[in-house]
Amino acid sequence: MSASWPVALVTGASSGIGETFARHLAREGSQLVLVARRRSRLEAIAAELRDEHGTSVEVLDADLTEPDAVDRVARRLRDADRPVDLLVNNAGFGSHGAFADTDPVREADEVRLNVIAVQQLAHAALVAMRPRRRGAILNVSSMAGFQPQPYAATYGATKAFVTSFSEALHAELAGSGVTVTALCPGFTRTEFADSAGVSESVVPALLWMSADTVVDAGLRGLRRGRAVVVPGVGYQLTAAVSRVTPHAVTLPVVATAFRRRLSRDAG
Question: Which domains are seen in the chain, by residue range?
């Protein structure tokens, strides 16, 4: 199989949506550069993908909340002798709760990972891709970015940045041979949801999607040159409504729902 992207670099590749991207791309014949904090987990995934698909897999262990680690990955993206055709900016995490009660260090790390790392790695990729007039960047955003998120204020704000940033770059790069797409999934069954404290006990089962469905939609939208991809018809309708509904209408509803949920969890 001829790969759409001969070499793909995926951040947050040790689990969840990132790992699923790695598996799909390996199956399509891409060579991979996998980035995450957990080197042992990356090595295990790399060995499995080499055995199953005969693809080349490079491992970069990096905590992208650390500037030095972001710089190392950025240098890899800019390496003209080993060009990267696709950057999947997937690494990120979420938090919830009243902002004043959250850990300020963790909230700052959330911004560093979800915003600053995404921005800096996209810049490094574009510096290398634009002169070649080919390449793609897929930034993993979220449905949470379409409206402010009371009790998940930092997370929603970071994802609003990712979506807006991606749409702007998509327009800037029109006709350049390079495309940028924001992937905005809803609730997805991954370790990310567990770490963010979200489960099927608080979110109806019908709202959950598999990581495979999300990744398929993302890669399909990227091939079609889409600026924004929202997987699932239900979420597409929700996104359309969110974009046109005034915040004055939605914010009290969302805040009340989260407040009740937090009170129920505390009880």
Answer: 7-266 (3.40.50.720)
